[in-house]
Amino acid sequence: MRAVVIEEYGVLPEVREVPEPVAGAGSVVLKVEATGLCRSDWHGWMGHDSDIVLPHVPGHELAGTIAAVGAGASGWEVGDRVTTPFICACGECEQCLEGNQQVCPNQLQPGFNYWGSFAEYVAVPYASVNLVRLPDTMDFTTAASLGCRFATSFRAIHQVGRVRPGEQVAIFGCGGVGLSAVMIAAALGAEVTAIDTNPAALSLARTQGATHTVQASDSVVDRLRELGGPHVTVDALGSGEIVQQALQALRPRGRHVQVGLLPAGVNLDVGRLIGQELSWLGSHGMPAHAYPEMLDLVATGNLHPDRLITRTITLEETPAALAALSNGTPAGVTVIAP
C-alpha cells in the first residue's frame, strides 16, 4: 500500500509502498477513505512524542470501510462504513468497564503507538469497543473530521464543561479543536467569545457562531471582563500564558476546561483557584459509546462539522502540508483523501 513514511524527525516524509496491516485477533483493517491532518501529527513528526518508533506512518483522525475482520471482532463485516476515536481502548480494564475508555491505561493510538492512517489501509485494535458505525448520510470527509478535534471538543464543552444556554464561554485558540468548540458551544445556546492571533481564524469563528472575537494580546482579560466574565473558559491550544488569562477572566465559581496539552512547568494561580472557587477540568478525547448523541446532532442539522473543512488534499500533497505546519496552523480543517 501507499503511505506517508517518516524516516527521520523533522525531515520531509516520503510517500512510498509499504506492507499492508494485518487484522489480528479482535481487530479490523480499514480501507482509509479520509483522514485529518492535525497539529498532533506535526508534533509526532518533530519527535515530541516518546511513543513513536521510526520508521513511522502518522495519522489518527480517520474514517473508512472495513477491508478485513480479525478473529473475535464480532458484529462487524467487510464493507461496513466506520470511524473510530483516536484513543483505542482495551475494553477490559477498570476504566473501560466504567465507560471511561478515553482514559484507558492500555490504550493504543493510531499514528503514535503504531502506524496510522496517512496510508491506504490502517488497523484498528479492540474493534468491538472502538468502532463507530457511520450514518448512511454522512460522507467520509466529514466523518474523518470527527475522530479527534470535533469529538474532543464535543465532550469538553458538553459533557465535561457542562455548558448551558445563556452562559458566556471563552474559547482560546481557533484551530480545529477551538473552532469545533465554538460551533458546539453556540449550538448549546452559549454566548461565545473566540480568541486567537490569526484574523482568518477569528473570521471563521464568527461564521461558526462566535458572538465576539478578540485578537490575542495582553488586554484579553480586560476585554473578557468588560463582556461580563465567562462562566466557562477553554484552552484549545495548550499554553501557560493562556491558562493564566483564562483563570483571571473567569467569573467566581467559573469552570476552566483544559484540552490543549501543556508544556512542563506551567504554574497556576492556586490562590485564585481556591478563593474564587474555580473548577479546573481536564478533558481528553471521547469514547466510542458517546458518539451517538453527537452523530444525532449532526444528522438533525444542529451541528455542521463539514463547515470547518477548508481543504482536501491527496496523499502525495501530505508531506509538504505536514511540514508547512512549522509556519503555523491554517484556518479550518485539512482532510486527506488517500
UniProtKB/TrEMBL annotation:
Can you name the source organism?
Kribbella jejuensis
Give the family from UniProt: Belongs to the zinc-containing alcohol dehydrogenase family.
Q: Which UniProt keywords apply?
A: Metal-binding, Oxidoreductase, Zinc
Protein name listed in UniProt: Alcohol dehydrogenase
Kindly give the PROSITE patterns that the UniProt entry links to this protein. ADH_ZINC
Residues covered by the Enoyl reductase (ER) domain:
10-336
User: What is its cofactor?
Assistant: Zn(2+)
Looking at the keywords, is Cell membrane present?
A: no
Taxonomy, top ranks, is: Bacteria, Bacillati, Actinomycetota, Actinomycetes, Propionibacteriales
Q: Could you name the domain of life of the organism this protein comes from?
A: Bacteria
What is an example of a GO molecular function annotated in this UniProt entry? zinc ion binding
Keyword Endoplasmic reticulum listed: no
InterPro entries associated with the record: ADH-like_C (IPR013149), ADH-like_N (IPR013154), ADH_Zn_CS (IPR002328), ER (IPR020843), GroES-like_sf (IPR011032), NAD(P)-bd_dom_sf (IPR036291), Zn_alcohol_dh (IPR050129)
